[in-house]
Amino acid sequence: MSTVTESRGPADGVTPDTTPPGGKGGRDVLREMDNPHRVRAVKDVVAKVVMWFAFALAMIPLVWILTTVVAKGVHMLGSATWWTGNQRNINSDDFGGGARHAIEGTLEMVGMTTLIAVPIGIMTAVYLVEYGRGGLARAISFMVDILSGIPSIVAGLFIYAVVVTTFGLRQSGFAASLALVLLMIPVIVRSTEEMLKLVPNELREASYALGVPKWVTVVKVVLRTAFSGIITGVLLGVARVMGETAPLLILAPYTKNFQRDLFNGNFPTLPMMINQDRGDLALPAAAERMWGAALTLILLVLLLNVIGRVVAHFNAVKK
Amino acid sequence: MAKRIDVSDLNVYYGSFKAVEGVSMTVEPRSVTAFIGPSGCGKSTFLRTLNRMHEVIPGGRVEGKVMLDDQDLYAASMDPVTVRRTVGMVFQRPNPFPTMSIYDNVAAGLRLNGVKNKKTLDGIVESSLKGANLWNEVKDRLNKPGAGLSGGQQQRLCIARAIAVQPQVLLMDEPCSALDPISTLAIEDLINELKNDYTIVIVTHNMQQAARVSDRTAFFNLKATGEPGRLVEVDDTTRIFNNPSQQATEDYISGRFG
Ligand SMILES: Nc1ncnc2c1ncn2[C@@H]1O[C@H](COP(=O)(O)OP(=O)(O)OP(=O)(O)O)[C@@H](O)[C@H]1O
Ligand SMILES: [Mg+2]
Questions:
Q1: If pLDDT is split at 50, 70 and 90, which confidence band does B255 have?
Q2: CATH 1.10.3720.10 fits A100-314, yes or no
């Protein structure tokens, strides 16, 4: 019986032809072939380490932001007036007051945006996936791509030019909603499209084969099957526009008062409340208010996410 | 209730590709007709022209004539949706609606077409599930998801769903190919019962199955890949399997093919 070492290396007296080329390197190759599982294990460990490292790297800024915002803003959220009051008659260096006006304003404005953008976005996606063929569909798809690349400040300027300058509407929460609609539509279209494409063609055919007209099939089978995915997409869209500030700077000047009328001039929102105190961070009262508003905004997005996930969960395809 | 299908000189295309050429045949009412032939010869394609499902595929079009009793299925005035209500279909892979319960799956065809009456639906769901030999297995869990059934049960659920809309003709494209022998036998028994009320056309790769369930058998073949598939012959099943008139059929049946 030969030993392990002998069997691996070229034995003495063997003709050069059978010697592995490359001397030592050749031996390594042979060893690797003897131990493929060991090589795989090493690769596996390396890949895991790299993956974890990348993951940790990606988490650092997230954790950093969250801890900063929570640490600096959380005590504002503990006071009752924060949830009930507004900032009326409160100067930059005054403590106190609340964010209710801005919370309501943000929800109202984003609600209006969602109300307009979601039907348009979903119907566009349905057209593109279920009906669109040829030139028109390609043109629409291309325009959605362009729309998704438009900087938010340009969307704001565009609405300003059209709605305020041309049609003489006031700067208002609604004007800002319109700009946000432009930002939200492409997100909804693209995500809904993906979800509709995931619905297997067999289900459409099963429905047609029962003598169900196409539009009923689209509404009751395709959209129903994709529903929970579409909700997730809508949430992405809401999250995308909720913290958007640039269009608000142009279209919805901040007010410290309650303002529930979307069509009536200055409008309070959380991003604009943050922006308001941004210049006075040296003042403890202003800094406190700003971090409080920032944390509130994050919580709002989080809350909507949770609600959406719950809705999606109860409408998910059951197994 | 069951109807006769008369096909004359049918060509079927996918865009510019002619998949099936020159098919003329008659499918008798209240009988089972089996389509056999090698893979890719156009059995599914031809089957789907019988309820105008072929045109759902982009580029799909048809030349020729398909008569259902005295109605021309491809007449300009004929609505494909009406055709599909008359000619139902069961697919190769069971495809219950994943968001719906067993009950809702069976009721789907009626509900989506506007039937709301609970009593009517209850009655039809029960009779359809009984008709598909599934009632006893699912009667206690009608509100559970249809996708939670076994493959064979799902296929019978799909048959129940198809017969719930009370079609005249039932097309089945390899309905047993994803099933075990026991589920297959269950479905074959079912086909035997269903033929009392329906005209049935079934595509199968299983010769024994064709011999067991069908009254008539149609053999399709294609000369070479890229060529359109053709109907070689259609005759009584016993004759096709014992004494076919074409050499190609005999070769295929006896496994001496190609
Ligand atoms: N959606 C499609 N688009 C283009 N060509 C298709 C399409 N479906 C089928 N074909 C082609 O049409 C021909 C007939 O296909 P078909 O599916 O009808 O065969 P089949 O007899 O049912 O085969 P099998 O026994 O494997 O199911 C084949 O050449 C196939 O490639
Ligand atoms: Mg087929």
A1: confident
A2: yes
